[in-house]
Design brief:
Length: 399
């Protein structure tokens, strides 16, 4: 039975399993780093590497213990995501998406959730949060058509998720009543993957378009992202939208940390740049700029830690499902993306001409963090919501 299998394969939960996971990731780092060019050229995470990550428990981090998962607390899960992004941005990103899918799935009806995890906790979910599909009511469920962008990790997913505009069964669409949007999940085999991921950064995430055409999806496979009630009791699953921005922040910080380490490693080779009077590591100009950008990175690390701990306290108290906390988390993700982009850009510039080569990790870090910063969660327009929140009810009544 599935339950018996979960019990057999599940590692020890809690602090020990988190430490072991981080140790396994550190041991895996040289293998991932040595395959950076392969990851970029293939525009995906190699299948054998995905299976290695699956085998060490990465994809069960946020699955509940009731289903064989680790059910790590939010700060610890973000530490794991950041550790992977520090090694490789594309790996960190796809794992963040897969683990975010674990949270999304909690909004499904319990019977459907159990179906997703019937063979164990190491399920990989992918999909898109854009409402790019339509769902028309039929006698057997909803007839879905759509084409969704940015489905990171879709080539190795077991299940995929999309959002749809609902028609014919959720009430009329009028100016006063905007379209009803619902999410749905279906096995990956039911989706078409379009080869569209030709991009400047995060090349290895395989974030292709995915499509479903004229397919009847059972009503039990749908969920309400905004106001749905989770089918699981744990604090992780009570506020899906509020935790997702911090996943993005963890990736941004991890990429920036990787860029900093790689710049220091380059300087410590004794490299002396053209027309420079001394090697990089002996230059006061280099030392000063390195110290300045290191302070920016420390600030980013500190804010992510503070926000993660604050969110987790609210989650434990049952208060995380709050629009103000969604705004705060998104504000944090936006600021982290901005600062981490600055860190990676500075590291690239300080690396000099050698950083231009595709063999340099500094150029890849720079491209990856810029790609991450293009995400809707990290757009500068998000600051307006934070400002509006600070101004209180007066600004709301003014419109």
């Amino acid at each position: 039975m599935a339950i018996e299998r979960w019990n057999l394969v599940a590692p020890l939960s809690g602090t020990n399993s988190a430490k072991r996971l981080l140790t396994d990731i550190r041991d895996l780092a040289p293998n991932i780093t040595s395959r950076a060019a392969e990851i970029e050229a293939g525009r995906r995470i190699p299948p054998d590497l995905v299976e290695t990550l699956r085998s060490i428990g990465v994809y069960r981090m946020l699955v509940p213990r009731s289903h064989g998962g680790l059910e790590l607390d939010l700060p610890t899960a973000l530490e794991v995501i950041g550790a992977l992004a520090k090694i490789d941005g594309s790996v960190g990103w796809t794992v963040a998406i897969g683990c975010g899918g674990s949270i999304f799935a909690s909004l499904l009806p319990r019977e459907t959730y159990d179906e997703v995890y019937r063979d164990g906790p190491d399920v990989i979910l992918a999909g898109s949060a854009q409402p790019a599909g339509t769902a028309e009511a039929t006698g057997d469920g909803w007839r879905v058509n759509g084409r969704w962008p940015f489905a990171s990790g879709c080539q190795h997913a077991d299940w995929m998720v999309g959002l749809c505009m609902m028609t014919g069964g959720e009430g009329p669409i009028t100016a006063e009543a905007p379209p009803v949007v619902r999410g749905f999940a279906m096995p990956a085999r039911d989706w078409l993957i379009e080869d569209t991921w030709y991009v400047a950064g995060l090349k290895g995430t395989g974030s292709h378009h995915v499509a479903i055409r004229d397919t009847v999806v059972p009503a039990a496979n749908f969920f309400d992202l905004v106001s749905g009630v989770p089918c699981l009791p744990g604090p992780l699953y009570q506020a899906v939208r509020q935790v997702l921005p911090l996943f993005h922040g963890a990736v941004s910080v991890g990429i920036a940390e990787g860029a900093m380490d790689e710049l220091v490693e380059l300087a410590n080779t004794g490299r002396q740049q053209l027309r420079a009077g001394v090697p990089m590591r002996e230059s006061e100009t280099f030392q000063g700029e390195l110290g300045r950008v290191a302070a920016a990175l420390r600030a980013a690390q500190a804010l992510l830690k503070v926000q993660a701990e604050s969110h987790w306290r609210h989650a434990l108290a049952g208060r995380l499902r709050d629009e103000a906390l969604l705004t705060q988390g998104t504000q944090t993700a936006t600021w982290l993306a901005t600062i981490c982009t600055h860190v990676a850009d500075t590291c690239f510039a300080l690396g000099g001409g050698s950083a231009l080569y595709e063999s340099s990790p500094l150029q890849r870090r720079m491209r990856d963090v810029h790609a991450a910063a293009q995400h809707a969660i990290a757009q500068q327009r998000n600051y307006a919501s934070a400002g509006k929140l600070l101004l209180g009810d007066s600004v709301n009544h003014a419109h």
